[in-house]
Design a protein that fits this description.
kinase; 5-stranded mixed β-sheet; WH-like_DNA-bd_sf; about 375 residues; HTH_ArsR_DNA-bd_dom; globular; binds zinc ion; about 40% helix; DNA-binding transcription factor activity
């Protein structure tokens, strides 16, 4: 994926407050000439402008730069097996608007997605500002080829989503795994403000991990890095959607927690996250123990990754974040007992538009700023 994260980072940083070039250079650890080159390009594109010079002391006057947030928009879609959430994002990361539409992944999905995008692209006053469309898709995604290798939740395998969608849309299209899309958003607007290296742990219908090393999202040679959900824990464990047994996901994904609850006779049927949450809140016997055990399994596996990569921060995201208070009593001691140095753990309140915003950030990084 062609990407110039530096320009996206500059836009994200200036989206919070105007800064001069030496402040940008200091915060991103870049040389003055590099920052001058990138900001010149962003000014040429009409995305930044210079404010009145500020004179302080005897030094040269400093020229603060500010973002023109409405100069270009990016559209991000989060593809879920029942619906699609769209977010239209400004250059400073703020939302123009968001929408939710029903979606059936089995009924001409490419055409359905194209129709949603074309509606936004056709809106007078906003459509012509949209520079690209990003899609955050659950499963194993090859972002370079734009192919969905395997998405059990959507029932897709080897779907050439990006090439097919690109034929129907007049703007560039990007796809990536949903967790990695959100990881890009974290890098630009969240954990990346304080850390150059960190992990994003996504818990929900699956378990995924976003990896940021040296301020870059790690994708691996074929773009499938971060398959944390399929870290093996027990060869005799429950069967996994990947065809193996005892993967992390088979203990900690929402469906796995629900299945364990049935096995232990705690519930009569597999329940959804909201119901699991209600049962834990009511302290239904056995539920909190089950979740703490799942949290411990997650924590031991995460500690291994933390030690290998020597990261100091981990951010938890995902639809199961409501269960985090019950996963955490197992997770935290397992991590703290397993890591060789300290780890800062933060938890993001989940919002259904999070992956959509992440997808819009992918476009910001790879298309808008790189032009
Ligand atoms: Zn697996």
């Amino acid at each position: 994926m062609r990407e110039d994260l530096v320009r996206a980072e500059i836009l994200a940083m200036l989206g919070r407050e105007p800064l001069n070039r030496s402040e940008i250079a200091a915060r991103l650890g870049l040389g003055a000439a590099t920052v001058t080159e990138h900001t010149r390009r962003l000014i040429d594109l009409g995305y930044l402008r210079e404010l009145a010079p500020q004179v302080s002391g005897r030094g040269r006057p400093r020229v603060p730069l500010e973002v023109l947030p409405d100069a270009a928009y990016t559209l991000g879609l989060r593809v879920h097996h029942t619906h699609v959430v769209g977010v239209l994002m400004r250059l400073n990361g703020s939302e123009v608007r968001r929408f939710t539409q029903p979606f059936d992944p089995r009924a001409e999905p490419v055409e359905q997605l194209a129709k949603m995008c074309l509606e936004v692209l056709g809106e007078p006053g906003t459509g012509e500002r949209v520079r690209g469309v990003g899609l955050a898709v659950p499963g194993v995604i090859d972002p370079a080829k734009g192919v969905v290798r395997l998405s059990p939740h959507l029932g897709w395998s080897d779907l050439a989503l990006r090439p097919r969608l690109a034929e129907l849309l007049p703007v560039p299209v990007l796809i990536d795994n949903d967790t990695r899309a959100s990881t890009t958003a974290e890098l630009l607007f969240g954990t990346g403000r304080d850390h150059d290296d960190f992990l994003v742990l996504a818990v929900g219908g699956g378990v995924g991990m976003g990896i940021v090393l040296g301020r870059r999202v790690h994708r691996g040679p074929d773009g499938v890095a971060g398959e944390f959900g399929h870290v093996p824990v027990d060869p005799l464990g429950p069967p996994c959607v990947c065809g193996r047994r005892g993967c992390v996901e088979t203990y900690a994904a929402d469906y796995a927690l629900a299945a364990r609850a049935v096995e232990r006779g705690l519930t009569s049927r597999a329940v959804a996250v909201d119901e699991l949450h209600a049962l834990a809140l009511a302290d239904t016997p056995g539920i909190r123990d089950l979740m703490a055990e799942a949290g411990a399994t997650l924590g031991r596996a995460a500690a291994g990754i933390v030690n290998v990569l020597a990261v100091r921060a981990l951010t938890v995201i995902g639809e199961s974040h409501v269960l985090w208070p019950y996963l955490e009593p197992g997770f935290r001691p397992a991590v703290e007992g397993g890591v060789l140095s300290g780890l800062e753990i933060s938890v993001r309140p989940w919002d259904d538009s999070a992956h959509a915003l992440g997808a819009a950030c992918l476009v910001l990084a790879a298309t808008v700023a790189a032009r």
